[in-house]
Design goal:
The complex is a heterodimer of chains A (about 250) and B (about 170).
Chain A: H1 3-24, H2 33-61, H3 67-72, H4 83-86, H5 92-113, H6 119-147, H7 151-164, H8 176-183, H9 194-207, H10 231-244
Helix pairs in contact in A: 1-2, 1-8, 2-6, 5-6, 5-7, 6-7
Chain B: H1 10-16, E1 20-21, E2 24-28, H2 29-32, E3 35-41, E4 44-50, H3 58-72, E5 76-82, H4 94-103, E6 105-106, H5 111-118, E7 135-139, E8 147-152, E9 158-162
Chain lengths: ~250, ~170
Amino acid sequence: MNNNLIQYILGIADNSLILGQRLGELCGHGPSIETDIALTNISLDLLGQTRSYFQYVAQLQGGDANEDTVAFLRLEREYKNVLLVEQPNTDFGYSIARQFLYDVYHLALLEELQDSKDEQLAAIATKSIKEVLYHVRFSSDWIRRLGDGTEESHNRIQTAINDLWIFTDELFHQTDADKVMVAEGIGVDVAMLKENYYKKVTAILEEATLQIPEVEYFQKGGKQGIHSEHMGYILTEMQYMQRTYPNMTW
Amino acid sequence: MTEQLIPIDQELLDILETVSDPEIPVLTIVDMGVVRSAKIENQKVYVEITSTYSGCPAMDTIADDIKAAFKQKGYEASVAVILKPAWTTDWITSKGRAALEKYGIAAPLSEHADKEALLGNKKLVKCPQCGSQQTKVLSQFGSTACKALFQCEDCKEPFDYFKCLK
C-alpha cells in the first residue's frame, strides 16, 4: 500500500468533500432560486469528483475499504482539507468569497494534475476540469456583481474577502506526502502555482472595485489535520448516519 | 461536431438502445454517448460506460438498468464506469440531438457559441418551443448538472439548454 499516494489523494479529495458538504447546507436556503441551484450543482460536482478520488483510495487501501469508509469513518485529524473550505456560510458573500478563492486554486491545480504520471489521477483531473471551469466562471461573476454592486453588497463581499484571505496561503504549502509525490512526477508542486494565483485573484478583485487585503499572518493547519473549530460540527452532521447505523446504505 | 461511433455488435446494441437516460427519458444511453464499449466473453456481457458529469446521480441507475435489460434477454452483464476519455457533448449523436430538441431541451452549441450564450453576450440558443433565437439565460446552472435555464423572449417559455462540455 502506497501511503504517500493515499495521503496525497486525500489532500486533494478532502477539499472537494468538505466544500461540497458546506455548499450542500445551502440546498433550499440559497438567496434566490438560481443561486440555490448553482451552489448545489457545484456541490454535486465536487462530491462526484470526491467519489472518483475515494474509490481510488479505497482500491489502494484494499481489504474492506470502500468510498464510504473513506468518506465517513475517519477521525477529524485524518481529514486533510485546507482550513479555507471548512469556513462557514456566514452570509452569501462568505459563500461566494470562499468559493472564488478556492475555485481559482482548484482550476490551476487540476490543469497541472492532468499531466500526472498516475493515470487515474490524470483521468480524474481531466474530467473535473470541465466542471470546475463553470465553477470559476460562476464565482468570479458574483465577485464582480457584489463588489461593483451596491454599497451594501460591496462592503459585505469586502468583509468576507478580508476574513478569508488569511486562509489562502495554506493552499500553497507542501506536505511531506506532497514532496514525495512531486518528486515521483505524480503530484503537483503547489508552491509553483502561488504567484499566478494571486495575480488572477487580484485582477478579478480589482475589476470588482475591491481592495486586496494586506495581512501579516496566515492561518494554516488543515493539511496536517489540525482544523478550525468548525470542522467537528461538519463531521458530526456528515458522519451521523454511518456512525448511528454502521454500514447502512440508501 | 464529430460523431464518435463505437463499434458494438448489433445484438448488444439493440439491447443497449432500450435503456434510456433516467433524467432525459427520450434519449437512449447510446445516443447520449455514455456507452463506451460492450462485448460478450464466455456468455457474459461486459459494458463500459462513462459519466457525463462526475456527480451525475443517474450513473448508478443506468448501470442497474443495463444489467436488467440484459437479464431480460438471458444475459448476465457486468458494468464498469470508466473516466477516460472524459465525456463530451460532442458524443451525443445527431439522433440524440433531435430527440432533445423535440423533448424541449435545446441541444448544445459549439464551445465558443456556448460561452457567448451563457455569459449573455449573444443570443444564440434557439427556443425549442417556437424556434426563436430571442432567448436569454436565466441561470447558468439548471435542473441537472448538464443543463442551464433559458427563457424565450418571444413565446416567454422557460426551457432547459444542454450545456456544451468539452
